Amino acid sequence: xxxxxxxxxxxxxxxxxxxxxxxxxxxxxxxxxxxxxxxxxxxxxxxxxxxxxxxxxxxxxxxxxxxxxxxxxxxxxxxxxxxxxxxxxxxxxxxxxxxxxxxxxxxxxxxxxxxxxxxxxxxxxxxxxxxxxxxxxxxxxxxxxxxxxxxxxxxxxxxxxxxxxxxxxxxxxxxxxxxxxxxxxxxxxxxxxxxxxxxxxxxxxxxxxxxxxxxxxxxxxxxxxxxxxxxxxxxxxxxxxxxxxxxxxxxxxxxxxxxxxxx
Length: 263
Prior knowledge:
The chain has helices at 17-26, 48-64, 75-88, 100-106, 118-122, 124-136, 150-155, 162-177, 194-200, 210-223, 244-255; strands spanning 7-11, 32-36, 69-72, 93-94, 111-116, 141-146, 182-185, 205-207, 236-240, 260-262. With 263 residues, it is α/β, with parallel strands linked by helices. The protein folds into 2 domains: 7-96 and 210-262, Rossmann fold, CATH 3.40.50; 100-207, Rossmann fold (3-Layer(aba) Sandwich), CATH 3.40.50.1860. The strands form 2 sheets. The chain has a 6-stranded parallel β-sheet, sandwiched between helices. Strand 1 (7-11), helix 1 (17-26) and strand 2 (32-36) form a beta-alpha-beta unit. The chain is globular, with a radius of gyration of 18 Å. The mean pLDDT is 95.
């Protein structure tokens, strides 16, 4: 494994850019390849077999590009395909999961809202995570809610449109009425709606696990002796199964930089 090799990050679309953003902030010298499977998005309403097949194809493609590690920057793909990826590939593979554990320390009311997709909330991986967390904190109530239409809004670049704000309020306002004071962003798309969510719940604590994922990535590649020791800012390459020009524009807006792109 060459320390100069890139790190691969993929998601069903642009949501994983929230993880990429955190990773590039912590690992300034690393080179990255980001793959957005926008032509097959969203994953949240697809079957397990579909998501696993797409994830394996993308993982194989990233390995062909010479990556030294892969981040599955999609909660749905992590929930249903992470183990299959680890079974098939030998390089370090980091997944994501809703931040239930930090939410325990953040809540004062003891009621936590978990915002995620249908597929994530229905997955065995999430069910097992919730069971483990509740065993250690039996008095905490977790209220699962689906962010219907949220992923699509982010994919359209509509982060604070009136339609997006209405969608967010329809989900968040009832949670507040139930006494929820902490909101877990259980989809990597959702941090890009943070302003709309915070507007709907100005006193709530919002849990975004992207920084923790970046720390775990750094730990894994450090343990492999594969940290890039270059003294310059690493490169960023974008690939997508969707519209490459539109993807480039979204990346420029969401990351405030202009990467290389490859169809």
